[in-house]
Amino acid sequence: MKNKSYVNVFIFVLIAGCFSFSAQNKTNTSKQIKNLIAQKRAFNKKYGYGFRVQIYYGNETNARSLQNKFRLNYPKVFTKLDYEQPYWKVQVGNYKTKLEADKAMVEFSEKFSGLIVIPLGK
Predict the structure, then answer these.
(1) For the domain with range 48-119, which CATH number is right: 3.30.70.1070, 3.10.450.50, 3.10.150.10, 3.30.365.10?
(2) What distances in angstroms separate CA 29 from CA 22, 36, 37, 56, 111, one per listed residue?
(3) What one-character DSSP code corresponds to residue 52?
(4) What is the value of pTM for the model shown?
(5) How far apart are CA 11 and CA 56, in angstroms?
(6) CA-CA distances (angstroms) from residue 86 to 1, 58, 62, 122?
(7) Over its length of 122 residues, how does the chain's per-residue pLDDT go in tens digits?
(8) Domain ranges of the chain
C-alpha cells in the first residue's frame, strides 16, 4: 500500500513537471517577446551599454590636461574626451556593470577627485 502511494505521488509530480516545462517553452516563442529582444539588441548595438567613470566636467583646457594626466597614471584604461556644449567631459573605462565601475572609481579616487559613475547610452 505504501509503495502504491509513492508511485502515485511520483507520477503526479512527473506530469505536473511536464506541463510546467511545456508552458515555459511556449512563452519564449511569442512574437512579442522575440520583437522586444530584437529591439533591445538593436538599441545596445546603436547606443552601447554599460558604465564609465567621469573624472571631469568643465572647460577644454583643463579637460585635455586631466585626460593626459590620467593616461600617464593609467595607460591601459580607455579615455574619452566628449563635448557637450558648453562643457567638456573626460570619461574613462568601459565597464559592463556598475559594480565594476564603482571598483575602478575607488582606485582612481586615490589620484583624482570629484568622480562619478555614468551609464552609457544616456
Answers:
(1) 3.30.70.1070
(2) 11, 12, 12, 46, 51
(3) E
(4) 0.60
(5) 65
(6) 83, 8, 14, 18
(7) 566 777 777 777 777 666 655 555 555 667 888 888 888 778 777 766 789 999 999 999 999 999 999 999 999 999 999 999 999 999 999 998 899 999 999 999 999 999 999 998 65
(8) 2-46, 48-119
